[in-house]
Amino acid sequence: MSFERYQDLVKALCEEVGIGDAQTAIERGAVEVGGYEVLVMHMASDEQAMYLNFNMGIARAGRTLRLFHFMLQSNTTVYAQDQAQLGVNPDTGGLLLIVRVPMTDELDGRALADTLVHYSEHGRYWRDTMYSTADEMYDGPSHAHFLWMRA
């Protein structure tokens, strides 16, 4: 798997969703899906995968530590079996839903588009929940109350 495979997948994705200028998407490393600008990346240190980063915005003042605590709990209890993680953009402080997508032979433009739609729904739920949930709800995972969290 290589950077060429990554480029072919981004081109196939653009064709699938009707983005006419795939080369610009590759150069920018971003596509727009479900109201999110999704950074589409390939890392030399992980040749067999591509990464999708959904930006969920910046936490409001006073909530950052609670959100980081909650993201850590979510990563270890909910997303441990998945290819997704919640994280922070070190440049902007924005909250990210980070998805690692293995570039298997079965992955094509349609499957990649479905993956983007799936995780944009996750991202929308997490973004809405993280910004509107009362602080007491963040104590739920430490008490094994996961009902309000969707994975």
Protein architecture, described:
With 151 residues, the chain is α+β, with helices and mostly antiparallel strands. It has a single domain (3-143), classed as Yope Regulator, Chain: A (2-Layer Sandwich), CATH 3.30.1460.10. The chain is 40% helix and 23% strand. The protein is built from 4 helices and 5 strands. The protein has helices at residues 3-17, 22-28, 64-77, 109-132; strands at residues 30-33, 36-42, 49-58, 84-88, 94-102. A 5-stranded antiparallel sheet has the order 1-2-3-5-4. The longest helix is centred in the last third of the chain and has 24 residues, at 109-132.
Strand content: 15-25%
Number of strands: 5
Distance between the termini: 29 Å
Residue share in helix: 25-40%
Q: What CATH architecture label applies?
A: 2-Layer Sandwich
Major sheet: order of its strands? 1-2-3-5-4
Structural classification: alpha+beta
- How many helices? The count is 4
- Element order, helices and strands? HHEEEHEEH
Low-confidence stretches: none
CATH top-level class? Alpha Beta
> How does the major sheet shape up?
5 strands, antiparallel
Mean pLDDT: 80
- Determine the CATH topology: Yope Regulator, Chain: A
The figure for the number of domains is 1
Principal-axis shape: elongated
| Rg computed from alpha carbons, rounded to a whole number of angstroms | 16 Å
